[in-house]
Each structure stands twice: as C-alpha cells, then as structure tokens.
Specification:
The chain is an alpha+beta fold and about 325 residues long. The chain is built from seven helices and 19 strands. The chain folds into two domains: about 220 residues, Fumarylacetoacetate hydrolase, domain 2 (Alpha-Beta Complex), CATH 3.90.850.10; about 55 residues, no CATH class. Helix content is about 15%, strand content about 35%. A hairpin with a 3-residue loop joins strand 18 and strand 19. It starts with a strand and ends with a strand.
C-alpha cells in the first residue's frame, strides 16, 4: 500500500499506516512528483576508494584520474563529465569491492531533514511527550518550513563496512535509514546515496533542545557505499529497507517507499541553501519513515543493513 511502512519484529510482520490526514480530514498529497527510469547496470556510481575516485558503469570500473573528490563534487555537470571520462578511460580488472571502499565524503558537510515522514512525526511526539515537546513535532510536520539540522563533517562519518557508534551516556539508540542527496555548491542535486542518521532517542526525548547531542557525535553517521550520479530523482516507488541482525539473528526489519515522504526533495534543498553557502557541496539526509518500536535499542555488535532499490546496501556494525 502506498504510504505504508511494513515492519517485522521478532518474526512478526505488520503494517503501520504512515499516511496523514491534514486539515479537514483530507489526505495530504504525496510530495515527490518526478518519475525516473528503473535503475539498471548502466547507472553511474561514483566511489571514493583507497585507490582514488572510481566510476562504476555497465558493471565495469574506471579510474577517475587527475580529479580530486572535492573538485568532482563541485561540478554542476558531474554526470556529463563522468560519462566523458568513461569513454576516455580503460576499465580496471578489479571490482570496486577489491579497491578498499571509503566513505564518499571529502570537505562536504552533512545536514539532515527531520520529521519528513508521518511515522517519524509520531515517534518524535511520543518520545518527547513527557518533556512537553510533543507538539513541536506535529507542528513542524505540517509547517511550510522543514526541520533542518547539522549532522556532521567527514571526521564523524563512516563508510560501508565500518563501525558506527552509540553514545555511552544514551540508553535508547536507533539507526535511521535515509535517502541522502549529494548537492553541488550551487544547490544542484547531483545524485544520491544511502545514509544512516544514528540517533539517541532518550536524549532527544528528554528535551528537544538536546537534539545536537542526540545526533552529532563520533561515528554518528554512515554514508555509502557509493553515489548514484543522476540528474533524475529516484522514483516514488523506490523502497528503503532496514534490517538489524544480532548474533546473526534478525531482530528488526522494516521498509517504506519514498512516496511516504511528505516533502519534496527540491524544497528541502532550497531551504538548506537559503542564506547559506557550501563551497564544497553538501549531503542532505532526507528523513526516515522506519522507526523501530520503543522497546528496541541497539547494542554493540549489532549489524545494520540499509538497502535502497537501485542504489545498493550499506552495512555497518555497532562498535
């Protein structure tokens, strides 16, 4: 069902209705309007690796020589530029997994949008109710201006296969699987990847003003594995899936389509770039529609697997 989030907990599957009825009981129109073709092996994927910048196209890998990561991120014509490099380069005899994948970030900042899905609004209201902040999240969900907050820089970000962190002073920690946009210095959306916005829900719930402490700490963000470089937005039917394994056993899984997102991607980017400059570009996490139940918290050793159809799978262990 469009707009629904499917969750499995301890082997039991159920559906959470994340559609929202606004003023007058009318269902809100879903925000993302731009259709894009189904992803195929012709998709351009850019990776930052121990061997430098690597482009994957039609199941072959090509080195992107004489270009730094940050110079590439600053190009509005990145897709056209990389297609030209494919025609000039010779394919490697190795796959990208053999080249040492790193987090796909250089001097870019990472920002995040909050309460863009009804499920997130519901969870935030519940966790902050005792602190008197529950109404804030309902109001920001329906407001014209979105919630945007700083998430981190490269020093706080890990890549595919690396360890994410949970705060030692938090008792309730969860991953937040999100579509992450790559944006040029001029505000153009260049592509997208997978993001994990690690969160300390008990700290944020104690007082909404504690959000920076709940969200910004060492290894609190994961990005990757690579970036899909495309001028097309993902289809609204694109599915985000979260699976958490503990000692090899699944303890939580859930999924949601992008169509459940209330806000559209260009509007989020436009608000982020208002009265702000990003000389090296930026990443924007676009919010989560998958929230584990209140009884769940991450533990050291848990494996977090986030998949977005057409993009890939980001895997990290809590450590």
């Amino acid at each position: 069902m469009p707009g629904d989030s499917i969750v499995t907990m301890a082997g039991r599957e159920f559906i959470e209705d994340v559609r929202h009825s606004g003023t007058g009981g009318r269902e809100q129109n879903l925000a993302i309007q731009v259709e894009s073709p189904r992803m195929s092996n012709q998709t351009l994927r850019l990776y930052r690796t121990e061997s430098g910048c690597i482009l994957e196209h039609e199941e072959k890998c090509y080195p992107v020589e004489d270009d730094t990561w940050d110079r590439l991120m600053a190009r509005d014509d990145l897709e056209k530029h990389l297609l030209g490099r494919v025609r000039e380069a010779r394919a490697l005899d190795k796959g990208v997994s053999e080249l040492g994948i790193l987090a796909p970030i250089g001097a870019q900042e990472v920002w995040a949008a909050g309460v863009t899905y009804y499920r997130s609004r519901d969870a935030r209201m519940e966790e902050s109710k005792s602190a008197g902040g529950g109404d804030f999240y309902d109001r920001v969900y329906t407001a014209e201006r979105p919630e945007l907050f700083f998430k981190g820089t490269a020093s706080r970000v890990v890549g595919h296969g690396e360890k994410v962190g949970i705060r030692s002073d938090a008792k309730w920690s969860v991953p937040e699987p999100e579509l992450a946009l790559l944006i040029s210095p001029t505000g153009k959306i260049l592509g997208y990847t997978i993001g994990n916005d690690m969160s300390s829900r008990d700290i944020e719930g104690e007082n909404p003003l504690y959000l920076p402490q709940a969200k910004v700490y060492n290894r609190s963000c994961a990005l990757g594995p690579g970036i899909v470089i495309s001028s097309e937005f993902p289809s609204p039917s694109t599915e985000i899936r979260l699976e958490i394994l503990r000692r090899g056993e699944q303890v939580f899984s859930g999924s949601t389509p992008l169509s459940a997102m209330k806000r559209d991607l260009p509007t989020l980017v436009e608000y982020l770039y208002r009265e702000n400059i990003f000389p090296n570009g930026a990443f924007l996490l676009t919010g989560t529609g998958i929230v584990p139940p209140d009884s769940f918290t991450l533990a050291h050793g848990d494996e977090i697997r986030i998949s977005i159809s057409g993009v890939g799978t980001l895997v990290n262990v809590v450590g």
